[in-house]
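Q&A log
Question type: sequence-to-structure
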Amino acid sequence: MKKTTQKTFALCLSILFFTFLMPLNLASAVDPTPLNPLIIEANKTSVSAIEEVKITAKLYTLPNKKVIFESTPSADANFSPKECVTPAVSSNNIYSCTVNFKSGDLTQTQIFKIKASYDSGARYSNEISITVTKNDITNFKISASKLTIAPEEKITIKATLNTEANGHEVTFYDGSSYAIVNKDGIFTPEKCTAIKASGSSLASCEVEFSSKVKNNYALSANILKDGKTYTSSSITVLVGEIVSSYCESQGKILDPITKQCKDKPNTDTTYTPLAPLPGLPGGVSFETDKTKNPCAFGQYMAIIFRLVIGISAVLAMVMIVYGGIEYMTSGSVSEKQGGKETITNAILGIVIALGAWLLLNTLNPALLNICLDLPEAKIIISSEDTSTGSETVSSSGSSLCISTTNAPNPDLAKGTKITLNSVMQNEYVPERNKLNISTGSKLMITAQTIFEGFNKNTKSYGTKNPGNISNVDNAVKPWNCGPPPTKGTRCFSTLALGIQAQADLLKRVATTGSTSYKKGGKYECALGNETYNGYLYQYLRIYATGARFNNNYLNAVIGYFKDNGKTITGKTTMEEIYNMK
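Response status: OK
Response body:
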């Protein structure tokens, strides 16, 4: 009887434990257990509307599990993201992941009951309650006068919110970690006071924003009222490539190589002598531009010619006087003869000078106009020249542009064998193989990297830019990777990013076409009279100046494809290479 009573008592305690005490224990659990493998917890349980709450899901010995969150009520409940995945590794068998929760603007206090599940809802977590109170501050938004700007360009950021914020201070900030660390995004000022305009149902204020570097900025604002912090919606401002119109608005021009604004070149084409010359237009200077003064050099030489005749006449008179004095003061006949010869030579010289001018003017006055058409030296900046960024054309015609009469024939390129050095094998290829790109893309960027000379102590290696994209040929060490980088140098923080840039460029060339590789485009420096049709040899001639003078680059690419079991020619299109399996 006693044993039966003991067993009955033990059974009752067990039922009591599992019925009442166990749920209580689970509700207050900090970490999951084998019996309750999923629990969730929040960093706050009472917040105001739009304020974010971090909700963490913890799973016991369950790596790589997708956890889905849900709320009751679901209206005005926002999870970001809606689900999360636990990590693959944990030091204590607890695998955690986190989402953010916030409500919309509420007109009254609301309690949200939140739980999570995994295995498509087969297992659920404990339930937590978050109390959200209505906002005193509503309609809190910020806007920008422009969402895409150039570096150092200033835009207006405006905050608007309901009139409860009237007279309160609004603080602006940038949520991108890059800008916080480097302090590149600048608000001027950082704060402003919200003011309700007459007849308006909103209060607002404005600040200016600018950045010195290219980046994406997530801009927001907050306001402190009655001990509560309210945060606005965020906007993204892209600080990208400088455009020519922005440079023009600053009284400058866009440098096509550095993509930065620079001072306009001196376009003053007037010549001002050190001392005034008689006969010059305006008395002291004259125009040398052929379009404004077709015979500028001839005009100058005509003035010099008349000036020389005038000087000759003065010198002749001096010599005549000198000869006369010599004649009068000489005692001997021979010395008097020397004076006569001096006078005779002076008169003869002035007669020849005046006679030459008189003869030419009598025969044809145009003979006195010395119009020489001197060859002009030009420096041409070619936007499609990615290897050097520019080419110099001399009066003799030498250039970095392709010859229109003796261009290399791509049909003669049959391929040459190229090999991978140890740096390519040990550093480049392992990183390249991590990319999810086609075989043709891998072979193409690798062949270009080999030909660009990727090895230790080279520029492509030092800048982690294996394709030398936007790197000029003549830039020498040290390669300052900035900020700001050395002119003509493009650097990447890791080799993986440099290889990704190669793949991205190839994709643009093969699919949408970048500015420098548009089908049907005319790139005279690289292609001469040809129209760009997307052929391999045309791509290489735009990409690198060396490919314009021989087939070495093209042969290297064709040969590398051949060594890897793929057949291409100079007229294989970049799209075909990009899609090659």
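Response note: The radius of gyration is 41 Å.
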